[in-house]
């Protein structure tokens, strides 16, 4: 399948891996693919169209940097006897004030990812990220396009149904509008 990827789409996949690493992830998730597309396509019609709608690399990173456990989560934990603030204080007291910042992953010493991953720095794709790539291929085939572009990756993300990607996109643009914009860009390129 990767032989059909354009240089921009390949760059997006490599950028997704870099984004996953930067976020201390051990696997590439669909949201990393979204970030990769935005990084790789910043100066493309797709990138400009996304930016006009507020869907930028910086905006997505900010969306993902939001505190993972908010007040609703704290309230839910309190209902079962867990004080989130006390847990945070204890973790910071025992591990330092930066304990929640996510330490960088040391592939030379961590054995969870196997020999190949430690030697190459390769991060595997989650099933949902693989599904995104497969759906991008299906979008290209359905359109009778000869190659898979970053635009097709966005269509795959929209069809994939990943809740994190859906929430991030919906903060900036309706998925229906984004799909229409991407299809329009692909139509103009054809």
TrEMBL record:
InterPro entries: Clp_N_dom_sf, Clp_R_N. GO terms for molecular function: peptidase activity. GO terms for biological process: proteolysis. Coiled coil: none annotated. Residues 2-188 form the Clp R domain. The keyword Isomerase does not apply. Keywords: Hydrolase, Protease, Repeat. This is Clp protease N-terminal domain-containing protein.
């Amino acid at each position: 399948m990767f032989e059909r990827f354009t240089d921009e789409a390949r760059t997006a996949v490599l950028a997704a891996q870099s984004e996953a690493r930067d976020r201390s992830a051990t696997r590439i998730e669909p949201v990393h693919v979204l970030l990769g597309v935005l990084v790789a396509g910043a100066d493309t019609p797709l990138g400009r169209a996304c930016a006009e709608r507020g869907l930028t690399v910086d905006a997505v990173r900010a969306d993902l940097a939001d505190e993972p456990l908010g007040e609703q989560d704290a309230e839910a934990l309190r209902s079962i006897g867990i004080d989130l603030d006390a847990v945070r204080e204890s973790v910071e007291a025992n591990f330092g004030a930066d304990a929640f910042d996510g330490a960088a992953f040391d592939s030379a010493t961590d054995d969870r990812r196997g020999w190949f991953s430690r030697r190459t720095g390769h991060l595997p794709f989650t099933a949902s990220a693989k599904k995104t790539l497969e759906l991008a291929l299906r979008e290209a085939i359905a359109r009778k396009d000869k190659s898979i572009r970053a635009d097709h990756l966005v269509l795959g993300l929209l069809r994939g149904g990943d809740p994190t990607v859906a929430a991030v996109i919906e903060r900036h643009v309706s998925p229906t509008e984004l799909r229409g914009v991407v299809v329009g860009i692909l139509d103009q390129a054809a």
